[in-house]
Amino acid sequence: MQTVKVDGMTCGHCAQTVTKALEALPAVERALVDLKTGEVVVEGSAEPGAIRKAIEDAGYEVRDAA
Question: Which ranges does the record mark as transmembrane (predicted)?
Answer without folding.
Answer: none
